[in-house]
Amino acid sequence: MQLQFVGCGDAFGSGGRFNTCFHVTGTRTNFLIDCGASSLIALKGLGIALNEIQAILVTHFHADHFGGLPFFMLESQFFSKRTQPLVVAGPPGLKDWYLRVMETSFPGSSKTKQKFDLELRELKPGEETEVAGVTVTPHLVKHGQPDGPFFALRIRAEDRVVTYTGDTEWTDALIPAAKDADLFVAEAYFRDKAVPLHLDLATLENHLPEIGAKKVVLTHMSDDMLKQVDELAYETAEDGKVVAF
Fold first, then answer.
1. What is the DSSP code string of 64-133?
2. Which terminus of the chain, N or C, has fewer Cβ atoms within 10 Å?
3. Using an 8 Å Cβ cutoff, are 17 and 29 in contact?
4. What is the pTM of this model?
């Protein structure tokens, strides 16, 4: 299994990085975790075959994690000529948010009939759900209101587990979400500065022993954090980076 960081940046282009979007592939597995506003550009820049992506798993509806859906959908319809089914799965409210993001970006686009089957699946916190051949368990995290709920995702794909925190301040829900994961992709917006709604490395570090993940990679870093990456004892994400797990 491998995860490629299509984009690992925050909402504000820190470090010139693309918005959050991860591409996970294996022998039978091919899906995205999040699809931020700049993701289609980044996907094409990396030469990723869009029509082979089976699902898009969404952590929350902020534009840097969800705003790329209209571009992905219309490109699939009119340029890639997609015919294979696609599942978009995310928090409760997904169906309404999908209509809102499509209509905000391209008025009338939500009424366009795709030439492929599209399923919008709303996930329930704490409930395992099979999506495109992988098992997804969402855990509620804390990223504020409005526009929740917000998920961390624990995903079992083939014989591996990958967990992504999404955007969140520390919550004990991250412990079962990431427990013994083969790969734990964790937000580390600041190094030592604790702020509401986002995770800092110092707080995360205190809990890593009880999480026990086999590999930890830090993502969604602010400019302040990016200035310190060479001093960190942890692997960090970069746009285009591939991590095997």
1. HHHTTHHHHHHHHHHTS---S-EEEEESTTHHHHHHHHHHHHSTTGGGSPPSS-EEEEE--TT--EEETT
2. N
3. no
4. 0.97
Confidence class for position 147, pLDDT limits 50, 70, 90: low
Q: Which runs of E-coded beta strand occur in the chain? A: 2-7, 21-25, 30-33, 55-57, 86-90, 118-122, 129-131, 134-140, 151-157, 160-164, 183-187, 216-219, 235-236, 242-244
CA 34 – CA 166 distance, rounded (Å): 9
Mean pLDDT of the chain, nearest integer: 97
Residue 69 lies in domain? 2-244
185's tokens: 């992709």
Q: How many CB atoms lie within 10 A of CB 125?
A: 14
Q: How many domains does the chain have?
A: 1
Of 162, 161, 163, 165, nearest in space to 151 by CA: 165
| 110/104 Cα distance (integer angstroms) | 10
- Distance, in Å, from the CA atom of 130 to the CA atom of 175, rounded to the nearest integer, reads 22
Q: Tell me which amino acid residue 128 is.
A: E
What CATH number does the domain containing 81 carry? 3.60.15.10
Tokens of 148: 């929740």
DSSP state of 142: B
Query: How long a stretch of residues is the chain?
Result: 245
